[in-house]
Structures are given as structure tokens and as C-alpha cells.
């Protein structure tokens, strides 16, 4: 008898559970996934907006503005990924209704009047903004898209954020505003909206901007322009290795360049600029002595005073990435300091035509503890993890400071982590914001 009744009870229970699933569990999972993906997206987007303010107080804990920008970039990418999930879940409601029946509790709120109208508007605005957001992400990841056009498009992001904040405010469940999740959301939306308004009104970084004039322009080599800017006493000074955002031309906007000289308190800053793109190519013909310039900064924490004094120092520069090391040596010479013991590796495309080498050798002669190694790729000499670790004692504790092409930095860091030498730290200056 039980042989029949037990399966019968199981079948009846199973079908009852199926009805439960259709009517509530699936919709409940759907609603919560929709809310969670939307919440994570707008929370990360608010963070992205606030990091775009270039907050100087965050530089020390995060390791410099270049790292803040990297966090800004990844928070932005993740925000769009969650937005995509949110959009896909939202699109899935018809399929769920067709299979399981029922309706989302979020669509069944029984609100009317203004709230209903605003919620409808928020849904439409959200859908419109999300398509623009996807387009923006694709353009950002498509590295061939020219930077100078990308930056104009990127300036529209705060406006897009305000649309998405409107969407989030009206579509978040009402009971959230009485709980910690709602309080955090209110704080993030306020911070993100204020940051967006500051960005849209062009006020980001204004208090760190100083007007100066170009005191000298030299081209030691056709691909390198050396620009000296006189900022006078308005310049608050800089630490060796820091960089500034330099605007030579308002329509071009600012470009980040490392300050290649020591701060002598006279407001003079020198930039060694390599022709790496449209604006920096032929730069000497686009600027002239006496021209006014806006310099914002200083920024960055690529500062050898932060070095681990118990670890052997390995400094590696690739091409124009030599600029912070020039500033370090220049500052130590100006302060009559005895620089630390370090192996300084400089990778150059062609040593016979590189104007930096002479300057570097003169500076290094002042510091017997600095051993300069040149790697001239025109002679087939390249710096690799193998030859780097071969020149160090196997059990040495070494700290590496790297500035140069992103790919070389990543390859060296990956390789050195598994090399016999004990890596005490790998500091990398990112010469790339996007
Ligand atoms: C922290 C930092 C320090 C730097 N220091 C130096 C230095 O001392 N000497 C030097 O020669 N170069 C330096 N650079 C690189 C320099 O900023 C770029 O080479 C320059 O901005 C290229 O401009 P472009 O219009 O000629 O190139 P484009 O053809 O417009 O772009 C080439 C690449 O340069 C970068 N870039 C362009 N414009 C900007 C911008 N406004 N802001 C940020 N990145 C941009 C982008 O990654 C872009 O893909 C530094 C970069 C950073 C992030």
C-alpha cells in the first residue's frame, strides 16, 4: 500500500513545491537579482564619479593619482558590467512570466499619481542611459579610438550618471530608505551627484592649478622636447618623482608629465616630453617661449623616500620613463645627499642618439652607490627577468621601482615574483590613465 501512497505523496508535494516556485520563489529571486545588480552598479558608479575628483588626500593611502585613476577605471568597468546584468535580468521578465506565470512584486506596487509617473520616467531614462553607457564602455576598451576624441565623450559621463541616479532614486524599494542599505545609497548618490556637478562645471582640480609661462623649449633629439615652465611663487613645490597635468592649449586640454627636475623653491619645473602621439609629436613647433601654461599638481607617490631601506634597490626605466629617476638624482644632488645604493637599469632604443644618457651619466658620477646599466635595443640588448636576477645574489631582498611601457612593467613584475631573488616590493608608475 505504502509503495503507491509514498510516491503519490511525493508527486503531490513536488507539484505543490513547483507551484510555490512559480508563484513566489522565481519572482523573488528575479526581484532580488534585479535590485542587487542595480544597487552594485549605481554604488560603483558613484565611487567612479567621486574618484574622478582627483582627491589629493587619497593619494597617500592609495599610492598616487595614477592608482586612483586605475581604481576609477575598474570601478567604472565593473559598474557597467553590473548594469549589463541588471539590463539582462530586466529583459528576462517576459520569459519568466511565460514559463512560470505570475508577476514581479516590483511591478505590482499599487502606487499612483506622481510616484507612478516618475517611476515610469525613471525606467525610460534608465534604459536610454544604459545604451549610452554600453557604447561608452566599448569605445573606452577599443584602444584604437583616438584619446583626444575619447576624452570629449568621457566628459559626458557625469551627465549620464545624473540620469542613472534619477533612475535609482525612483526605482529603489521604498523600505530601503529606512535601512542601512538606503542610507549608504543616499550618501553615495549625494557624493556622486555633487562630483558630477563639479565635473560638469569644470571645477575639478581648480584649486591646484597654477598659471605659468614657458621659459625655455629645447629639442635635444627630434622625438624629445624639453620644456621649462616658470610658475613663480604660486607653485607649492613638488617631491622628486611627482607629475603634473599640463595644459599648453585650452582646446587640447591637460596632459600628465613627470616633473623631471628637483624642486629648488623657485617655481621652475622641467618636463621631458617624448613624441608618443598626436599632440606630443612636433611639440616644439606648437609652443613657444613666453606662452602661458596651466600646471595642475603636483600629484603622485613615486617617491624614493618611501623606499624600503632594508632592501637592495633596483630602479628600472624604459625610454621616457627615466624622468622620475632623473628627478630623484637631481634632488639628491641638489640636497647634497648621498643617494642609496641602487642598480639603475635604463632601456633605450638607440644609445648613440639618446640625449638622456649623457645627463644620466653626469648625474650618476656624483653617486658612487648607483650602478648604471644601459640596455640598448638597437644592439640587441634587452632587459629580461633572467639577466636581472642573474646579476643579483639569489637570496637578496630587492625592491624594484619601475617606470616605462606598461607591457614591460607587467612582464618584469610577473617574472620577478617567481625568480630566485626575494622581491620586497614592485612599484610601478602607470604612464597610462585610460
Ligand atoms: C603619470 C604620468 C606621467 C607621465 N609622464 C610623462 C613624461 O614625463 N614624459 C612623457 O613624454 N610622457 C609622459 N606621460 C605620457 C604622456 O602623458 C602621453 O604620452 C601624452 O599625454 C600623449 O599625448 P598625445 O596627445 O601626444 O597622444 P595621443 O595620440 O592623444 O595618445 C597616446 C596615448 O597617450 C595617453 N594620453 C593622451 N592624452 C592624455 C591625457 N590628456 N591624459 C592622460 N593620458 C593621455 C593615452 O594613453 C593615449 O592612448 C605620462 C603619463 C602619465 C599617466
Would you kindly provide a written description of the structure presented here, covering whatever features stand out?
The protein is an alpha/beta fold and 434 residues long. The chain folds into three domains: 20-200; 206-299, Translation factors (Elongation Factor Tu (Ef-tu), domain 3, Beta Barrel), CATH 2.40.30; 304-429, Nucleotide-binding domain of ferredoxin-NADP reductase (FNR) module (Rossmann fold, 3-Layer(aba) Sandwich), CATH 3.40.50. 47% of the residues lie in helices and 18% in strands. Strand 10 (397-403), helix 12 and strand 11 form a beta-alpha-beta unit. It is elongated, with a radius of gyration of 28 Å. The termini are far apart. Bound molecules: flavin-adenine dinucleotide. Flavin-adenine dinucleotide (FAD) is lined by residues 66, 147-148, 243, 253-258, 272-274, 276-280, 320, 323, 431-434.
Rounded to the nearest angstrom, the radius of gyration is: 28 Å
Summed up, the domain count is: 3
Number of helices: 12
N/C terminus separation: 73 Å
Q: What's a quick, concise take on this entry?
A:
This protein is of the alpha/beta class and 434 residues long. The protein has 12 helices and 11 strands.
Map the helices and strands.
Blueprint: H1 2-51, H2 59-62, H3 65-91, H4 93-100, H5 114-141, H6 147-154, H7 157-171, H8 180-200, E1 209-221, E2 224-230, E3 243-247, E4 255-258, E5 268-274, E6 292-299, E7 312-318, H9 323-334, E8 342-348, H10 355-365, E9 370-376, H11 385-390, E10 397-403, H12 406-418, E11 422-429
Parallel strand pairs: 7-8, 7-10, 8-9, 10-11
Antiparallel strand pairs: 1-2, 1-6, 2-5, 3-4, 3-6
The structure holds flavin-adenine dinucleotide.
Flavin-adenine dinucleotide binds next to helix 6, strand 4 and strand 5.
